Amino acid sequence: MQSLSKSHTFFIGLMLFSLFFGAGNLIFPPVLGQQSGEQFVMAMFGFILTGVGLPLLTIITIGITGKNMQQLAQQVHPKFGVIFAIAVYIMLGPLMAIPRVTNVSFEMGAQPFVPESLQSSSWILFLYSLIFFAVVYVLSLNPSKLVVWVGNILTPLLLLSITALFIAAVMNPLGDVQPAVGEYVTSPGFKGFMEGYLTLDAIAALAFGLIVINAIRDKGVQDKRAITKATIQAGIIAGIGLTLVYVALGYIGMTSVEAFGQVANGGQLLTLAVQELFGPFGLILLAVIVTLACLTTCIGLVSACSQYFSSLTKRISFNGITFLICLIGLLVANLGLNRIISISIPALMVMYPIAIVLIVLSLFNKLFGGRSSVYVGALIGTVVISLFDGLKAAEIPVGAVTDVLSYLPLYKEGIGWVVPALVGGLLGYMFGKLKQR
User: Fold this and answer.
1) How far apart are CA 223 and CA 234, in angstroms?
2) Angle between helix 418-436 and 372-393 (nearest 10)
């Protein structure tokens, strides 16, 4: 049985880390550090559970089952598998995640260097996104070389940049740790848990898992057990990397309140921090960190989407699909970050709980005999709640319904779908047992 070497496993783990670590992951932890203050340890523990634990669980599930996103969803119904996979790849791809990453890269990595008189010009964003997507297109054309580019080159540069920022913050603390504020005062662990949930990396892991498996196969490993082992090991390496970086960025935020006060935006906080620690050079360092983080994530998303859609049709080549994804992403990116986010949040409120339920059920598939009725029951319970959460996020009037739903356990915390999913899964299991008789 041929297995993957330790060095190849390590670099695939670095690749996976860098694919996960986008701009959102860069700006969440500093704000958590600021707001949690003296409760930082508990808050960060909660954040890591969902910001690292859920994506790692997804990668492990894909490694153990050997199934891609569509195959996992097909356990509900074959047609549902296709519909769910297409919806997720469109969301992660050209209509939401990819253009959002591009905009964050522009606003934090390039816009500060643009003359003030030109910053409001739409042409500046268009030119930047054109260059950005040209680079993404070239690096996404050959997925087998993604490990070399990302794991061996881009990720070390990203980690070196963040390490330099962290060391400077430790050597020259921005200030003393302050008391926690808001929900971090009474429930820091749960608040951190919810913030990690918003990283959305569990959904991205459904797509990135296929990239990891293909990267392993490209090294000549074909045995299922060897692929599973290497996938899990790569996931653990990525998880350790994410944890260390989150703690480092959280520490910067935790010590920054005395210097800057409570800053509403993680991007603004990092900008202030790097300027304070490095002077004018700080903005260049931040631009490098943000651009690398966004670039690697975007490459991973484009590559994953291209691989999936090219498997659905033979009429368009892989290169053609990659070009179309980049082109659509370029056009949507120029709508602006605020508009993209306003469109994406309602969809994410619906899709993310569905993804979590599918991941958990797939991992424990053998415990209930893989009965599709369990999947159907759990997802009905989940969709009913998450659909109204999405409508509420889209500011569509559903007040009468949400007033009733507010009596559900954990609804006010944003995960009211948990109990209906459990009840639906249990009812589905009972129905499946009765149907067998």
Assistant:
1) 16
2) 150
| C-alpha–C-alpha distance, residues 100 and 340, integer Å | 6
SS3 state at 137: helix
CA separation for the pair 72, 77 (Å, rounded): 10
Could you say which DSSP state residue 264 is in? S
Per-residue model confidence as pLDDT tens digits over 33-71: 999 989 999 999 999 988 899 899 888 888 888 787 888
Query: Who's near 243: CB < 8 A, 6+ residues apart?
Result: 48, 52
| Residue in this structure with the two tokens 């299991």, named with its chain if needed | 429
Q: What is the pLDDT of residues 290-311, one digit of tens each?
A: 887 788 778 878 888 888 888 8
Q: What are the structure tokens assigned to 288, written together?
A: 């490098």
Q: For residue 160, which amino acid is it?
A: L
Residue with tokens 């670095």: 14
* pTM for the whole structure: 0.81
Kind and range of the H or E element at 114? none
What pLDDT digit, counting tens, does each position of 332-359 carry? 988 876 777 777 778 878 888 898 899 8
pLDDT of 80 over the 60 cut: yes
Residues 6+ apart with CB under 8 A from 83: none
CA nearest to 231, candidates 242, 243, 217: 217
Tokens 């260097």 correspond to: 113
* Burial class, 435, CB count within 10 angstroms (exposed 0-12 / middle 13-18 / buried 19+): exposed
Distant-in-sequence, close-in-space partners of 102: CB < 8 Å, separation ≥ 6? 129, 132, 133, 294, 298, 329, 330, 333
CA-only gyration radius of the chain, Å:
22
Rounded to whole angstroms, how far apart are CA atoms 419 and 37? Answer: 32
Burial of 219 (0-12, 13-18, 19+ CB in 10 A): middle
Token readout for 263 is 């800053």
Structure tokens at 436: 């067998």
Which amino acid belongs to residue 250? G
Identify the sign of the CA torsion 391, 394, 396, 397.
Answer: positive
**Could you tell me where the beta strands, DSSP code E, fall in 146-229?**
none
Q: Cα(331)–Cα(155) distance, rounded to whole angstroms?
A: 28
Closest CA to 10 of 169, 173, 240, 178: 240
User: How far apart are alpha carbons 51 and 196 in whole angstroms?
Assistant: 4
- Diameter of the chain by CA atoms? 75
